[in-house]
Amino acid sequence: MTRPFSRSGLVAVSLAALVASGCSTSRFSSMDDQQPAPLTPAPSGTVTQNQLPPPASPGTTDPSQFPTAPKNTQVASLPPDGAAPAGATDLTAASVAGVWNVNVSGQSCKVATPQTKFGAGYRAGPLHCPAPIDGIKSWNVAGKQLTLYDENGGTLARLYSSGGEKFDGQTSNGQPISLTR
């Protein structure tokens, strides 16, 4: 018994019919005559020019340039000799790893502290942080202290656990800093 059409022949004829019928459609012909509506112009205003204040000298900080910390933000004071405050707990890398909300003198940002080995500690990634925290490249723990380092291994901040998911400390230039989750 012979078949009148082969399977491949039937597919070829079907495709040819679909292509031919698609070319003769009039569905899109009505769009050729239409023009889009013109756009309304953006509002314009006047541009003003003001003189910026001179930049602060390196090493000087004008406190009026920075917003104040929210009233409910408390940063524990550190002992002047750099010792751990009473109640600080021993730290492990696993207890520090994660993403932290950082408050530096009233300015907020985030810092990621993954457990990816880097230099003498672990890699760190600041996100939209103010100086000097914008320069964090690594972190490490030793006993009760969490230390944040710059790209050259210099200390940017030292912090201690304040209980739960919170660290308080100071940057290398004396600014209060806290990390919370």
From TrEMBL:
Bilayer topology: Lipid-anchor
Main location: membrane
Top-rank taxon, per record: Bacteria
Subcellular location: Cell outer membrane
MF (Gene Ontology): peptidase inhibitor activity
Keywords: Cell outer membrane, Lipoprotein, Membrane, Palmitate, Protease inhibitor, Signal
Polar residues composition-biased segments: 58-75, 169-181
Signal sequence segment: 1-22
Record domain Alkaline proteinase inhibitor/ Outer membrane lipoprotein Omp19: where: 91-181
UniProt-annotated stretches for the region Disordered: 26-87, 162-181
InterPro entries tied to this protein: Inh/Omp19, OM_lipoprot_Omp19_bac, Protease_inh_B-barrel_dom
Regions of compositional bias (Low complexity) in chain numbering: 76-87
Pfam family, one: Inh
Family in the record: Belongs to the rhizobiaceae omp19 lipoprotein family.
Protein name, entry field: Protease inhibitor Inh/omp19 family protein
Source species of the chain: Mesorhizobium vachelliae
The organism's taxonomic lineage, starting at the top: Bacteria, Pseudomonadati, Pseudomonadota, Alphaproteobacteria, Hyphomicrobiales
